[in-house]
Here is the input.
Amino acid sequence: MASFGASSAAACGGDEEDRQRVVGDEPVDDDHSDEGDESDKDDFRDWQAEDGEDEEESAVKSLFCAQKLPSLAELVEHDKKHFGFDLQAVVKDVCEDDFSFIKLINFIRSSVKEREAETSSKEDLVASVTSLIESRVFLDGETYLKPVLESDPLLFLFDELFEFE
Here is the structure.
């Protein structure tokens, strides 16, 4: 077995010292051993940073403001507390399946985007959007299956709180 390791190290252009490092059971204590440990720590830090990026990407934007929240449950509470909009009640009343939920969310986001500049207050905006939701016009066709926000986590997290028959 040692000859296999030695020949593979030689084939890779390594010298005798490199072959011992590859084949030996114990790590060789030389000047380069600490560099590997530092490199491993750097790799781990990179991995941790990527995890933080995932958390930022999965933050859910409020339906009526720019606030980003860490979960769907917190978004529901935020929008209920600050805007009087109960997403759970609306979903229960309006949505029959995953597709109607996706249409609802995209319709709300689109309506807020269109009406934000022309309404005088957030209360008026929410009232306007709510009356449009009650008309259920967004359910017709496929217009609102296209996300308003690119990679909108809300469109993927709905099963945390909502179940459709």
About this structure: The mean pLDDT is 75. Strands lie at 60-61, 68-69. The two ends are 61 Å apart (CA to CA). DSSP finds eight helices and two strands in the chain.
